[in-house]
Amino acid sequence: xxxxxxxxxxxRQSTAAHxxxxxxxxxxxxxxxxxxVKPLVIVASVVAAIGGxxxxxxxxxxxxxxxxxxxxxxxxxxxxxxxxxxxxxIADIQGWITAVxxxxxxxxxxxxxxxxxxxxxxxxxxxxxxxxxxxxxxMGASENLATLYAGRFIGGIGVGGLSMTTxxxxxxxxxxxxxxxxxxxxxxxxxxxILIAGIANVGLQHWDEGWRLSYSANGSCAVIMFVLMFxxxxxxxxLYKVGRTADCxxxxxxxxxxxxxxxxxxxxxxxxxxAVIAAKSRWADLFMARNNMNWRTMCAVSILFMQQLTGxxxxxxxxxxxxxxxxxxxxxxxxxxxxxxxxxxxxxxAIAFVDKYGRxxxxxxxxxxxxxxxxxxTLLSSDLANYKTxxxxxxxxxxxxxxxxxxxSYSWGPVGWIVPAEIYLNELRGKGMTLSTTANWxxxxxxxxxxxxxxxxKNFNLWGTFLFFGxxxxxxxxxxxLCVPETAQVALEDxxxxxxxxxxxxxxxxxxxxxxxxDPAVKVTDMSGFELSxxxxxxxxxxxxxxxxxxx
Length: 552
Description:
By secondary structure, the protein is mainly alpha-helical. 69% of the residues lie in helices and 0% in strands. The chain has helices spanning 12-19, 39-48, 50-64, 69-75, 88-119, 121-141, 145-173, 179-204, 210-216, 219-228, 236-241, 245-255, 258-277, 293-308, 312-323, 329-353, 359-380, 391-409, 415-423, 429-454, 461-483, 495-504, 507-512, 529-540. The protein is globular and about 65 Å long. The two termini are 18 Å apart.
């Protein structure tokens, strides 16, 4: 405890250790031992993360169709040889096919907060899975651009809602000690979907109608998710929020060990009681100084907005198009498959280390690494080297794009979703995640729409595009150092304590202390926000207590 006196801080770990001697399920456990994680928590998180698989398949599948002969013939586009680029009008259509999906996702995430708060996390996941099933049918059966656009937009609505609700659901059922790893499952499934689509495209390119499966095969994942969600529990925090306290306790018994339930139920009850006293949350509350909500909102929205400015989806959406400027169609799809494999495998690094070494470390190292590799690709694709005719230079670009993808996969990919899911107050998490996810999708829309055009030689070309993204990666690294607190190993109800301490740090301390997991300057070592609020209530009374005031 870094010299702090003994405290009565209530957490799952400490409660389990304290009650272990009296609990038949915990007899013989060593003091301070952590209770085992119940399988249902893992299963429910994996089922929810199927939404990531749906999204990932779309990223990897749709872009690959732009070089398929069957798809190009269907739309009346010319067949390109190696090194040839599409004219600007076709590049514009490719941008719209990609971007209209993100536009639908922004629309889906905008209304998602209403559904999650009104009907619950689990029914909302099922609703958006059903929406995507309809979209998959439209995309797979489309005979013209209008039908394809409609399917893409509706599919975006489904994925937009799934991307927001999945991380919220996972953060609310997971024990804090593995919360980061379980939320990272979302990104793992996204990378798995991208990989599966990359493998499928290599074979589907030889079938004239193969492009239809590139757009619609993930509908089967939506069907599986819809069915399996019937057997998953609802979020205990949402159940308590709507007054279903008996169901809340029953759910806690399913996802936690018996000796952990009372402490967690008390924590949820206290958090919700303060929320009720604070009155019904409003959108404006996201920007209030009380409880550091303006800082939380700035961090969450900025992280998810800037996640797209890494340029990662410009690569995954259009990697076959990029590679086709110096490779043939077959090699373009194989190189794209290489990137998707790297993306999938390196996501396991985040799952292994995100709770141990923290969110800040992965975000900072990932941002600056991506910046370096973007600059290298910029130099290799500039007039300093002739990558279109020099095969060695072309393959070197492929190699550095692979390590660039690796840097994203262990950092801004999974962690970019973890921090926003953790940092909001419980009563504002639905609205906060709606705002953050919408920002992500709007930036995704811009990247998808304009990347094909800026890649054209008459515009930014390849070197200018990566110089643009590399500059943003540098900004993201410094933003993380200066503005993002460490949320690893922190109870959701204790975030305000960490935020208050973080904001009191000097700029120099923030810049020079990348890993703050065990930094005594910010670690909750003396008393949690939960315990402080209980003391204040006892001293001041519930009516006088202002729950929206920062806990210090």
